[in-house]
TrEMBL record:
It comes from the Bacteria. This is DUF2938 domain-containing protein. The chain crosses the membrane at residues 5-26, 68-88, 100-121, 141-160. Keywords: Membrane, Transmembrane, Transmembrane helix. Pfam families: DUF2938 (PF11158). InterPro entries: DUF2938.
Length: 163
């Protein structure tokens, strides 16, 4: 794998995650509750101690530097998702990005929080143990669709820079 491919994957993954974060910031400004990245850090911190599932991640023992760890994991996940996307579509997609493919992939990545992370944090599959599971699922889908749009936007900007 050459350096240009690695750079494309990194820049696209970080950029798409940043687009998602701007979306989350907008939601917060509009009064919509969003994910607390400290809980992601707490969950990851407990993974290193051999604990995968929690009744409630909010009630679990805090981990030192959990907020920073949560943000690092959030961006690392974005880069991993970008790498998976390029494995599926090929790196040539970055030269002629297509929005629908990126949106579909972004939506598909929502499977990860809905079926793995939320249950492990105590919210149940697809947030079923929360007061508003449908709303939470729709928020996850929207957030991940925005990530997909971010993949497209970043690839388009990178392609324009190279051209």
């Amino acid at each position: 794998m050459n350096l240009n491919i690695v750079a494309t994957i990194l820049l696209t993954g970080v950029g798409a995650t940043l687009v998602m974060d701007l979306w989350l910031l907008l939601l917060q400004r509009l009064g919509v509750p969003t994910l607390n990245f400290a809980f992601i850090g707490r969950w990851v911190g407990h993974l290193s101690r051999g604990r995968f599932h929690h009744r409630s991640i909010a009630a679990s023992e805090p981990i030192p530097h959990e907020l920073a760890l949560g943000w690092v994991m959030h961006y690392a996940t974005g880069v991993v998702f970008a790498a998976m996307f390029f494995l599926l579509e090929g790196i040539s997609w970055a030269q002629q990005p297509r929005l629908l493919l990126a949106l579909a992939f972004g939506l598909a990545t929502a499977v990860f929080p809905l079926l793995l992370v939320q249950p492990a944090m105590g919210a149940g599959i697809a947030s079923r143990k929360t007061p508003s599971p449908i709303r939470n699922c729709l928020k996850s889908l929207a957030n991940h669709a925005v990530f997909g749009a971010g993949l497209y936007l970043c690839a388009t900007l990178l392609a324009a820079r190279v051209a």
